[in-house]
Every structure is written in C-alpha cells, then in structure tokens.
Prior knowledge:
Layout: H1 12-24, H2 30-38, H3 42-58, H4 63-67, E1 75-76, E2 82-83
Antiparallel strand pairs: 1-2
Amino acid sequence: MLIGLTMSILDPVKDMNGSTLRVENGVSTREREAAEMTGTDLEENIAQLAFEKQLMEKYGLGLADAVNPSVGSKSTTKGGEEDE
Length: 84
C-alpha cells in the first residue's frame, strides 16, 4: 500500500492516541496508520521490532532498558558488589 506524503505530527501523544482509537474502533488499520503517520510499512516495522527484541534478549535487556538506559545498567564486580 502506497499512501504518499505522511501527515505532520504536531502533538505526537494526541496523534498516537487518535491512531490507536481508529484501529481499535475498526475505522483504520495498523498498515494504514503506519503509512500515514510515518511513511513506513507495517510488515517491515514488525520484522524490525522482532529483530530488536531478539537482539535485546541476547544481551539480557528488556523494554525498560531501551526506554530508560539507566535501568539494568549496574554491573557486578568479582566480589559481588554493584558498580554504577
């Protein structure tokens, strides 16, 4: 599906909430919303998200680590003490 130009995002939170509501109420699809909001392809987005999830799991990271890098960033020394 080719939509063309993407809409400008003036208030990202309101735009995202609107997109979510349109999908939840059946007046739009995830594919259309991805194309209209960011010009991206839903299938490519899903493939990229799966890759990122697998990569994060490989390094023992979770979503909170990606959103807030300071979470889980403590390492332990040989003596079991935490380094910050």
